[in-house]
Design brief:
about 170 residues, alpha+beta, Rossmann fold, Alpha-Beta Plaits, four-stranded antiparallel β-sheet, 8 strands
Length: about 170
């Protein structure tokens, strides 16, 4: 409610530019959704809105996104163009024991990157992945119910990829 009140106060003067610094951090999911609905309505009134957010699902709701790390701009584009810039095939790997999965998959010889993502691990490999070989490697390590699927990169994946590149 405090965030909604602060937004309302900022709008009293009918600004042309609204700058919001992490407006939904610490806000419950329903209020976050309502807040973004309000911002979408404001766009119809020719108000330019600049938002900083650590939530990549919120970044997907914006017209343009700037990925920034340590004060350096890594990329500026539409959310879809940022996602499309991911340079490798990305795989989503799941198993019963997630911590063991990530530590094991990082030991797999062809693994380039492996990051936790929800209930899975997002992984890139050097060369073409031979799924059966990976599953056998994970099975030999005692992991059960392993699934491997190619998936589309998200903004988080692209951000992590850009952070790995030398400046």
């Amino acid at each position: 409610m405090k965030q909604k009140l602060a937004l309302s106060c900022a709008l009293i003067h009918k600004p042309k530019l609204l700058i919001l610094d992490e407006p939904t951090t610490g806000v419950d999911a329903v209020s976050r959704s309502e807040f973004w609905t309000m911002l979408a309505k404001l766009r119809q009134h020719n108000i330019t809105i600049i938002v900083s957010t650590p939530y990549m699902d919120e970044a997907m709701k914006c017209d343009r996104v700037a990925l920034i790390q340590n004060g350096s701009v890594l990329s500026v584009a539409t959310p879809q163009k940022i996602r499309d810039g991911f340079s490798s095939k990305l795989f989503m790997v799941k198993a019963d024991e997630k911590f063991k999965l990530i530590t094991t998959i990082r030991r797999y010889p062809q693994t380039m990157t492996a990051y936790p993502f929800g209930d899975s691990v997002h992984v890139t490999f050097t060369g073409d992945l031979i799924k059966e070989s990976l599953i056998a490697f994970l099975d030999e390590s005692g992991l059960k119910n392993v699934t491997v699927e190619e998936t589309q990169a998200g903004i988080e994946d692209r951000f992590l990829e850009l952070m790995q590149k030398p400046a």
